[in-house]
Amino acid sequence: MHLREQTLSSKNIYEGCIFTVTQDIAKLENDAQAQRDVIRHPGGVCVIPVTEDNEIYMVKQFRYPFSEITTEVPAGKLEYGEAHYDCGKRELLEETGFNCSEYVFLGELYPTPAYNTEIIYMYLAKGLVQDKQNLDEDEFIDVVKIPLEKAVDMVMNNEIKDGKTKLIILMAARILGI
């Protein structure tokens, strides 16, 4: 089978609260074998909440691996078995305090397909209705409102470094004609 690999064995190396790491042996198309280290992740959802004035709500939070504060769209990890639509609604409310009347599915993103099974499902949220923010006890987030046009400039100037956020901002801008 051209461009396909067959898993011959898989061994758990690490199990954490967010992901599992396996060490796999794969059979290649030339019958050789190769080791594949894989991060197995349940996936996540990101949501870009857009106002009637084409402003977006984003979150600022500290990201431990980089020791810096990032600006991102609201997002979160799927629970195993959870529908991505439900996760998106939950995360939008938890992180920003908004519900919305319309969700538009924008597709899937493979953030690091070489070694990670994570899929991020992307949604555009319209018809925002203010409710109450409900952060997890280990979440510390500031919510900011930014014109979508300025957010596009921030992406292009590398002020926003998060991949899912860059992509969904550019997709929303294209869809909304910004």
Structural domain count:
2
Could you tell me how far the N terminus lies from the C terminus, measured between alpha carbons in angstroms? 44 Å
Radius of gyration: 18 Å
Number of helices: 3
Stated plainly, the CATH topology of the largest domain is called Nucleoside Triphosphate Pyrophosphohydrolase
Order of helices and strands: EEEEEEEHEEEHH
Basic shape = elongated
Output the structural class: alpha+beta
User: What percentage of the residues does DSSP assign to strands (E)?
Assistant: 35-45%
Helix content: 10-25%
CATH superfamily membership of the largest domain, which one?
Nucleoside Triphosphate Pyrophosphohydrolase
CATH architecture of the largest domain: Alpha-Beta Complex
Mean pLDDT: 96
Low-confidence stretches: none
Strand order of the largest sheet: 7-4-9-8
Report the top-level CATH class of the largest domain: Alpha Beta
Strand count: 10
Major sheet description: 4 strands, mixed
Task: Give the key terms.
178 residues; alpha+beta; Nucleoside Triphosphate Pyrophosphohydrolase; four-stranded mixed beta sheet; three-stranded antiparallel beta sheet; 44% strand
Describe what is shown at a glance.
With 178 residues, the protein is an alpha+beta fold.
Overview of this structure, please?
With 178 residues, the chain is α+β, with helices and mostly antiparallel strands. The chain is built from 3 helices and 10 strands. The protein has helices at 84-96, 148-156, 163-176, and strands at residues 6-15, 20-27, 33-40, 44-49, 55-63, 68-72, 75-77, 98-109, 120-130, 142-147. The strands form 3 sheets. The chain has a 4-stranded mixed β-sheet with strand order 7-4-9-8, with helices on both faces. Strands 1-2-3 form a 3-stranded antiparallel β-sheet, with no helix packed on it. A 3-stranded antiparallel β-sheet has the order 6-5-10. The chain is elongated.
